Amino acid sequence: MLDSSIPNLREDTLSSLIFKNAAVRGTKTAIREKDLGIWQSWSWANVAEEVKLLAGGLAAKGYVRGKNLAIIGDNRPRLYWSFAASQSLGGVPVPLYQDAIADEMIYVFNDAEIEFAIVEDQEQVDKLLEIMPQCDKLRCIIYDDPRGMRHYDHPAVMAYEDVRELGSKILNEQPNFIDDELSKCHTDDVSVILYTSGTTSKPKGVCLTHKSCIEVAKGDMGFDNYTDEGEILSYLPMAWVGDHLFSYAQSIVTGFTVNCPESSETVMIDMREIGPTYYFAPPRVFENLLTQVTIRMEDASRFKKWLYEAFMKVARRTGLDIMDGKKVSLKNKLLYGLGNMFVYGPLRNNLGMSHIKVAYTGGAAIGPDLYSFYRSIGINLKQLYGQTETLAYVCKQPNGNARIDSVGTPMPGVDIKVGDKGEILVKSPGLLKEYYKNPEATKESITPEGFFKTGDAGFIDQDGHLKIIDRAKDVGVLNDGTMFAPQFLENKLKFFPFIKEAVCFGDGRDAVCAFINIEMDAVGNWAERQGLGYSGYVDLAGKSEVYALLQDCIEQVNQDLANEDTLSGSQIKRFLILHKELDADDDELTRTRKVRRDFVAQKYEVLVKALYEGSNACFIETQVKFEDGRTGTISADLAISDVKMIHSTQNLAA
Amino acid sequence: MNETDRKLGPTILKAENISLAFGGVKALTDISFEVKEHEILAIIGPNGAGKSSMLNVINGVYHPNAGSVTYKGNVRQRMKPHEAATQGIARTFQNIALFKGMSVLDNIMTGRTLKMNAGFLAQCLYVGRARNEEIEHRKKVEEIIDFLQIQSIRKTPVGRLPYGLQKRVELGRALAAEPTLLLLDEPMAGMNIEEKEDMSRFILDVNDEFGTTIVLIEHDMGVVMDLSDRIVVLDYGKKIGDGTPSDIRNNKAVIDAYLGVSD
């Protein structure tokens, strides 16, 4: 396939692979973006050209080997090219979450000694100009979207077009400039620094190499048979390891097409238009989609409702077996076929999942109902397990052997050990090189034998499947010695469509109590159907009817727990519904929407006290931060409700 | 940044001694003011002060009993609203006046009507000039959709949208006519704080990006003070104040009209 007339076809760095793609599949579409209602495409040859121009421009502005480049914004082609341009010059791209709070951003900018940043639009430029006085090194901000930028005459601010223009000048003078730079890159060089969300401490920069990105992408490609005919939709934050692997490295290695949605609000519509073949989303996205389906079915006509319910019953009965390639009776096969025609097919189409060959979820536990829903309607949804430090490459569920309670079997080249306190230790081709400028953390996290300490507690069952229970450090005990796995409980709660977020307390206490955040859409819709009036979130959250609804949900969780030997003692005794949604802007969640349990416990100390004191209500006033940085307060009288604890059958018998 | 380097142009609209009466009710009495090019002018006043009547005079819905309107240097004779539209005056309404059953895209497209030149038959058959024209108009409309960030509702029927978004679509339709003078009748009525902030941003952006002159009626004083270059205050059909936001904030007649006079 290789053409000897094309120079520099190295395959050991991501940037050189782009140029190889331009040579071997130059006319094939590499990336699309919807703009002004039309999908615009760039072939691999176009992409290689754009990368060259941008790299030339960056070099002209003084960006050189070894420097880091901050990238902030939505998933845009030009921002993906920025990764490649930086890598072509031997630099290291550092994508940042665009909704990161100022402190976090300043920290990363200073830690990574950022001089150059490429951002999406005015919003990001404003943010950077604001923090600029605290980031001494920052000297060049390049923006992609010129809207609203006409009046900026700050010397550090520059349009992408102008940089590109500089690039074309450089390339005219030195046509071999990029090739020379490329040839100086090494496969063991750091290719990207991804800052981890920092549930407990300051963010840490995870350094990954070209080699690890390429090996992981090849491993995944072989495991699930990716081809360059594939289509994916890139809509998850570019700073997240999943997007970097899937939309960037994987696309370059496999050669499939990346599609950038028009805006974050149009993702559903764009997904329907594109019909991706591979799809990667955290569980909450699948959950949101199912919630929407459920809500719309509630509002459908009676006949459609009946049809949906009847065939979903069939799907629940036989869908999983069909997906796993097991034998089913002819009658069930026929029924499923009919269902596919009337319900599952149209539903998949509506979700934009008609063409999906394989869909993944990871990053958090997925509810059994949610998981089986997608698999039973013919979507090959599989769990994977991994973290930023392992480039999301540890375990995946193999086709035909996907089980809800496991995250799959180790990927080719991955070695897993179970350490102290059930902690999972991993050796993977995707393993980080080091934490950026933090040898201490590196030493702490990687054992002398080269295993990464994941911090997750779990075990490998007799079939070789990995099962994760909780964070190793979060597992605690109640005063009576019962094991308390908060995340396990919270996940069980969150599997109810009415519950958006839950925080459980119990370590070192007599019983388990919980904070609940309701899911506004689902509960709001439920309230409407009950003819229950409400004025807003706070009002709805405080309704006694809503409390009763949630009480039912929690009792079901207790019922479930009663059947599990080790955890039956950690049933939830009391709960309250919070008056505000937990929010990353208020530091209550991490950017990847994981609850900061200790922070929440501290912030709402009064409420926790009230829960354990046995009072029936508690007044609270909370400060909230709006998106534009201003603050306000919300106050409410919160009710506290008791839940029936269920005695397990075993206990009764004994 | 905007305030310092935005240049106001010459007078684009001049109202002189306008009086308007409906039978015995004097809606407007002897009102004069000027609007400069690229300016954002707010007309404020208590209910029934004659604000909407004034807008209706400007775009030709009402004909004043006395006085004259000079637009772009021409003293205006009796004219009809569509003539105002051809001269580059577009407006939105206090009570949204969109086609509820039509999509956002189609609604904004209607704002292009005056710019469509192809014949009826050609448009029906979608051939030749009509086709190129349609593409050209669609592009313009898409730019407006992008500008107002309503891509996600492009094909949604307007009737299904929440109020705040409908207001935004109505602004989009007015913008589709590429107006030089944009009249906004209570663009933020009934909106929550977040929607008001969005709308304010869009109004400033329109003024800034397209250089459109804007005359708006608004009740929210915070919004008015932030947005406008100049404010005209009406009370019982009479002008009681005219000046920059800070002038108006300290104007005794205005304070009296809004807060009442203590004896």
Properties at a glance:
heterodimer, A: 654 residues, alpha/beta, Rossmann fold, GMP Synthetase, Chain A, domain 3, five-stranded parallel β-sheet, five-stranded mixed β-sheet, 22 helices, disordered N terminus, disordered C terminus, B: 263 residues, 2 domains, six-stranded mixed β-sheet, globular
Number of domains of chain A: 3
Count of spatially separate domains of chain B:
2
CATH superfamily name of the largest domain in chain A? ANL, N-terminal domain
Strand order of the largest sheet of chain B: 6-7-8-3-9-10
Oligomer: heterodimer
Helicity level of chain B: 25-40%
The N- and C-terminal alpha carbons of chain B lie at a distance of 44 Å
> Judging from the principal axes of the Cα atoms, what is the shape of chain B?
globular
The main sheet of chain A comes to: 5 strands, parallel
**Biggest interface in this structure?**
A-B, 15 and 18 residues
Largest sheet of chain B: 6 strands, mixed
Give the strand tally of chain A. Answer: 28
Q: Rg of chain A to the nearest angstrom?
A: 26 Å
Strand content of chain B: 15-25%
Query: What's the number of helices of chain B?
Result: 11
Give the strand line-up of the largest sheet of chain A.
4-3-5-6-7
Distance between the termini of chain A: 71 Å
Q: What's the CATH superfamily of the largest domain in chain B, by name? A: P-loop containing nucleotide triphosphate hydrolases
What would CATH call the class of the largest domain in chain A? Alpha Beta
**Would you state the CATH class of the largest domain in chain B?**
Alpha Beta
